[in-house]
Design a protein that fits this description.
Layout (H helix, E strand, L loop, with lengths): L11 E4 L3 E5 L5 E6 L4 H7 L4 H12 L1 H8 L1
Antiparallel strand pairs: 1-2, 2-3
Length: 71
């Protein structure tokens, strides 16, 4: 029987200096969404704006709720 890893809800989003981190209820990091504040560096590094990264991380954090509704 294959091992199935679970990521218990609720998922939360934390911000640090360069990214937003989506974590499960146990504190396991599930996703890192990076951003760059400076427009010159952002285009050179091809990174998201802070607001774009925040919205993406928030939507990833909502996945357990959305999947629960479909079941």
């Amino acid at each position: 029987m294959p091992y199935v890893r679970r990521f218990p809800p609720p998922w939360s989003v934390e911000e640090n200096d360069v990214c937003f981190i989506v974590k499960d209820a146990n504190g396991q990091a599930l996703a890192y969404v990076y951003f760059e504040e400076g427009p010159g560096r952002r285009s050179a590094a091809n990174r998201l704006t802070r607001d774009e990264a925040r919205r993406i991380a928030a939507n990833i954090g909502k996945l357990p709720e959305l999947l629960k509704r479909r079941a």
